[in-house]
Write a structure and sequence with these properties.
about 180 residues; mainly alpha; 8 helices; elongated
Length: about 180
């Protein structure tokens, strides 16, 4: 009689008995980042939309005064000039863009596109508003830009509408 020796010493977790906790942790690794960025961008968009001063062309705390203050120290002054043609319109576009990016990221709805939008918003803010931060790491927009990149590359593979749609598509096609 032969006895088999068990070589699998890892305990299965959370995924129907296959894999181990490391596999599960890897699968869900981007979820905290998605939740953080999604909530942060929803909050930022709502904060702008509900702040009476922000959406004004001039005055304390307005988008117009903020853009005029950073114009000469930005990496791309022409980008600031473009925003200054209609500061209120730009403020609404920024707020609604942040809201759309946050909702898309949190729900995992067109997650790569939402993350690309978040990365572009962060890039534009880094090149304008926080460009003059010295040293550079004092400006948070560059860190946000880097945080968006893994989501641009990976999307939202778990706990997302995108994953649900992929799964249903596979089931209809007869796959697993």
């Amino acid at each position: 009689m032969t006895h088999s020796m068990r070589t699998d010493t890892r305990t299965p977790y959370l995924n129907g008995g296959s894999g181990d906790w490391r596999d599960t942790a890897s699968r869900y690794a981007l979820l905290p980042l998605r939740v953080f960025l999604g909530i942060t961008f929803i909050y930022a968009g709502l904060d702008k939309l509900t702040d009476g001063a922000f959406l004004q062309a001039s005055g304390a705390g307005s988008i117009g005064d903020t853009m005029r203050a950073v114009r000469d120290s930005s990496a791309i002054p022409a980008l600031v000039d473009l925003a200054l043609k209609s500061p209120t319109g730009f403020g609404y576009a920024m707020a609604l863009g942040e809201l759309a990016v946050g909702i898309g990221t949190l729900l995992g709805l067109l997650a790569r596109l939402a993350a690309l939008g978040g990365a572009l918003i962060s890039l534009s803010l880094w090149l304008t508003v926080s460009w003059a931060s010295d040293p550079y790491y004092y400006g948070n927009d560059l860190a946000y830009l880097m945080a968006w990149l893994p989501l641009v590359l990976a999307g939202a593979p778990v706990l997302s509408l995108d994953a649900t749609w992929r799964s249903r598509k596979r089931q209809r096609a007869g796959g697993f």
